[in-house]
Design brief:
Blueprint: H1 3-11, E1 16-25, H2 27-40, E2 44-49, H3 56-70, E3 74-80, H4 91-98, E4 101-105, E5 124-127, E6 131-135, E7 156-161, H5 165-178, E8 204-214, H6 222-233, E9 237-241, E10 245-246, H7 249-260, E11 264-270, H8 277-284, H9 287-292, E12 296-300, E13 309-312, E14 316-320, E15 324-325, H10 326-331, E16 334-340, H11 342-356, E17 359-362, H12 364-368, H13 372-381
Parallel strand pairs: 2-3, 3-4, 9-11, 10-15, 11-12
Antiparallel strand pairs: 1-7, 1-8, 2-5, 5-6, 6-7, 8-16, 9-13, 12-17, 13-14, 14-16
Helix pairs in contact: 1-6, 2-3, 3-4, 6-7, 8-13
Domain PLD phosphodiesterase: 116-143, 301-328
InterPro entries: PLD-like_dom, PLipase_D/transphosphatidylase
Pfam families: PLDc_2 (PF13091)
Length: 388
């Protein structure tokens, strides 16, 4: 099937070829790769994150960015005013004293209260315009380690080389400009020119990538169109891993129609370990309909599951910062990449299968026997569903 042509027609963004992608699983792989890229940068480091809290990695990241600025490298950082509100004291001051230029995305202003609910949920690191990172990771102790226990989140992040880095750069610049800055005329100096930043053994070569960024919308966005296109075009299987699952009714109907035409669908979400209990409850009121359609739902029980990955027909991978919920689809600035590459999908499928060993499946009988308290919480959450 011509997935690439269909996605370009519906989303309106062309794929680029010749990209290199490395899948990074959990903080034990993610943070060393990010810190190495910063260390090797020679001209500019751009860093955008939603979560920046506390812990060893919060200190190490701040010191690494500060060191590059002291070496004369231009370092620009965007922190979401909500997601980074509980950052360790003194880190921003230390970075600014070292020459790091820090901007806060949508600071809270009482007279612009309508903006406070729309955040930048993007996670982007770009070094010299040659190598970039994106995915779901936050800069906090919760993401350190290897998801061995509930104190270490299960996460997936990606290291990108190639022309797709330009799309990630544009996502950074969109938020940078909104934060009050002007476009820099020096930007083209360090763009990707075909060379490899490094030769990493686990990297997957020649990946076709489509970069889709989205911002707050009244009722529609490119992420909505992207998700709907992937579901409608699926022929054999769909595997969704998401930290927050809260689809609207049209999306539920599309998933059920896909299941009815024979597409095997598996949805993996956090189980007993979650940092957003209300979000889980709000999404669970759709479980009965999904289970009746024959869709498999899995609760990941080992720790908080924070990855955001969709795999379609063992070949198309949708990766990035967006969850499968209303907030990612309409309220927050997000960045997703769509990869047309079987080798990349194979790695992600292997991770999915590994994660299934730490899951409990939700069955129709089990869900029909759920407690009255659970049912009551689902009912109570419905009026607030669109706000999550």
């Amino acid at each position: 099937m011509a997935y690439q042509e269909i996605l370009e027609s519906t989303v309106g963004i062309p794929f680029t070829s010749g990209n290199t992608v490395e899948v990074l699983k959990n903080g034990v792989e993610i943070f060393p790769a990010m810190l190495q890229a910063i260390q090797e940068a020679q001209h500019r480091v751009d860093f955008l994150t939603f979560v920046y809290w506390k812990g060893d990695i919060a200190q190490r990241m701040a010191h690494s960015l500060s060191k590059k600025a002291e070496e004369g490298v231009e370092v620009r950082v965007i922190l979401d005013s909500y997601g980074a509100a509980f950052m360790t004291d003194g880190l921003t001051e230390m970075m600014e004293e070292s020459g790091v230029e820090i901007s806060w995305f949508r600071p809270f202003k009482q007279w612009k209260i309508w903006k406070t609910d729309n955040r930048t949920h993007r996670k982007v690191l770009i070094c010299d315009g040659k190598v970039a990172f994106t995915g779901g990771v936050g800069i906090a102790e919760e993401w350190e380690g290897d998801a061995r226990d509930p104190s270490e989140y299960r996460e997936t992040h990606f290291r990108i080389e190639g022309p797709a880095v330009r799309g990630l750069q544009s996502a950074f610049l969109e938020n940078w400009i909104e934060a009050g800055h002007q476009l820099d005329s020096r930007l083209p100096r360090h763009q990707y020119n075909g060379e490899r930043f490094s030769d990493r053994e686990q990297a997957i070569r020649d990946v076709a990538l489509q970069v889709v960024r989205t911002s707050a919308s009244v009722r529609w966005s490119d992420i909505v169109i992207l998700y709907q296109t992937l579901i409608v075009q699926a022929q054999d299987n769909i595997k969704i891993t998401t930290a927050y699952f809260n689809p609207n009714q049209p999306m539920v109907e599309l998933l059920c129609k896909a299941a009815e035409r024979g597409v095997e669908i598996d949805i993996m979400i956090p189980g007993k370990h979650t940092d957003q209990r209300v979000a889980n409850i709000a999404g669970s009121d759709r479980f009965n309909e999904l289970l009746q359609c024959g869709i498999n739902i899995w609760f990941y029980q080992k720790t908080m599951l924070h990855a955001k990955v969709m795999i379609v027909d063992d070949v198309i991978s949708c990766i990035g910062s967006a969850n499968f919920n209303h907030r990612s689809m309409l309220k927050d600035d997000e960045i997703n990449l769509i990869a047309n590459n079987e080798a990349l999908a194979s790695v992600l499928l292997r991770h999915f299968e590994d994660d299934l060993t730490s899951c409990e499946q939700v069955t129709k009988g089990q869900w029909e026997r759920r407690s009255m308290w659970q049912r009551a919480l689902e009912t109570i959450s419905k009026p607030f569903k669109q706000e999550i």
